[in-house]
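Hi, here's the filled form for the chain we discussed.

Project: internal
Contact: R.S.
Residues: 536
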Amino acid sequence: MRDWLTAMRWVWRALRLSGLPAPGALGLRVVRLGVRHGWSMYVLAALWKDLAPDEAALTDDRRQWSWRELVLDVDALATALDRMGVRRRDRIGLMCRNHGGFVIALLASMRLGADVVLLSTRFDGRQLAAALDGHDVCTLVVDPEYEAHVKEAGFRGRVLWSGAFADREEDDAGPNLPGLISSTPPARIGRRRPGALIVLTSGTTGAAKGVRRTLSVKQVAGIMVSLVSRLSLRTGARTLIAVPLFHGYGIAALALGLALRCPVALTRHTDGSGLWAIARRTRATNVVVVPTLLRRMLDASLHDPSAAIERIVSGSAPMPTRLIEETSDRWGEVLYNLYGSTEAGLITIADPRDLRDAPDSVGYPVHGTEIAIRGHAGDTLGPGKIGEVVVTGPLVFGGYDRARLPPVSAHTFATGDKGWRDDAGRLHLLGRMDDMLIVGGENIYPQQVEDRLMALHQVVDVAVAGLAAEDGGQRIVAWFVLRPGHEIGASDIASVLPAYMRPTRWTVVEALPRNAIGKLARGRLASGTIDTGSGP
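And the returned structure, exactly as it came back:
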C-alpha cells in the first residue's frame, strides 16, 4: 500500500507539472473510476468525458470527436461486442491504420476486459496467420484494404471491418464498426478488470514476438514524471501522432495524450504533404514522429507557411545529425529524441540541450531506470567503453507472450544494442551487437558510417552493410536514396569519410527496406542487392 501511495504522489506531481489542477475532486473521481473499471486508457477517456465533455478529444482524416462523443461511441461498440459474446480475457486483434476506429475499438476492448493484440499493417497473409494463431486471437478488427491478407491467413474467428473509418463507405464482407456503433445504444456492462495489451516486437532481427503489458500506477509513475518534466509537456496541447498506433511507441503516445487531456490528431497518411496538412489543419503544437517521417514533414513544410510547432518527439530509429540541425534551423530547439524498446519500455530521453551538446547521443535514463554497459565477460564497463546496453527498470517485461522462452528476471533486460556512455552519463548507440563490421582489421559500426554519409546534401537515406572479402574480413557496400536529379560519386563520399570507412561499392535505389516504424531491416540487405519486400 505504501508503494502504491508513493506512486500516486509521483503521478500527481507529473500532472501538476503539466498544468492540471491539484488533487481534490479530480483525484476522487479518478480513484472511483479506477476502482470501477481498473486502470486503463478507457478510464482516462471516461474521466475527461465527465470533466470536459465538449472539448476536442480526437481528430482523424474524416471527423472530430469530443470527449463525450468518443466515450459514447466506445460504450456503444463495447455493448455490441458484449452482445456478440466477447468476454474478459478474450483476445481481440487490431490491424488498422491510424484512425478513430482504431482508438474506439481499443478502448471498447479495454472496457470489456479483453486482451488486445496489436498487429502490424505490414503483415502479409503468412505473417498475419502466425500472429493470429500464436496469440489466440478470436476477434479481428481490420481495415478493408487488408481483406486479401485475412483470407490468405485463413482466419476462422470473428472479423469486424473498420469501414468508413478507413475511407470505405460500405463493407459487403461482414459487420463493420460504424454500423455496430450507430445501431447499438450503450447499455450498462458489469464491472470488468482491464485485460492486457500484447505489443509485437518489430521483427527486424527475427520473427515478431509478443510482449504482454498490464501496466500499474506504480510502473508508470516515474515514467510520467520524466516525460512531463523533461519534455515540458502541458495539458491540452494539440498533439499529432504520426507513428503507427500498433507499435509500442505509438500506443504510449496515445496513452500519454489521454492522460494529459490532449486533443489527439491521427492520419492514415505517411507522405510529407499529408502529414503537414493535418498538422496545420489541427494546429498541432506537439508532433510524434520517427526520423523518416520528420524528414518528409520538414521537406513539405519548406513550401508552406510554418505551423506553431513547439515540440517534436522522435524515436525508434537513429536520428541523423543533419536532420537535427535542419529541424533546429526550421523550428528552433524543439526536438527530443527517445530511446526505448518493446521489451524495456522508454529508456532514455535526449532534450534539445543534449542534442546540441552531443547530437549523436540518446540522452539520459528516465526516472527509475538504470543503464549498464556490459562487456563480453558480463563485467560493467566505464565511460567511453563499448559494450551491450543492459536496462533495469519498472517497465522491463517478464517474458514473451505464448513463447517457450526463459523469463526475464529482476526487471533486467539485455537489449542487444551496442553503445557507450560519455563522461556526462549520456548514452550513445552504435547499432545492434551483431552489426559490427571488420574491415582491414578495423571495427566499424554501420550507424556511424550512415550518419556521416547523411551529411551529404544529395542523400535522403542511406544504409551500409558488410560483404565477405577475400582476406577473410569484410568490405563495405552502401545503398543510397538521393534527391531527384542528384548523383553521388567517390569524391562526395571521400569528403565525409576516412579511407577505411568508405564503401567500395554503392547503388542508388528508390527506397530502403524500413519497417512501419522507420527502423532499417538490415536482414534484407544481402549479396549486394536490396530486398524491399514488405515486412512487419
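Let me know if anything looks off before we file it.
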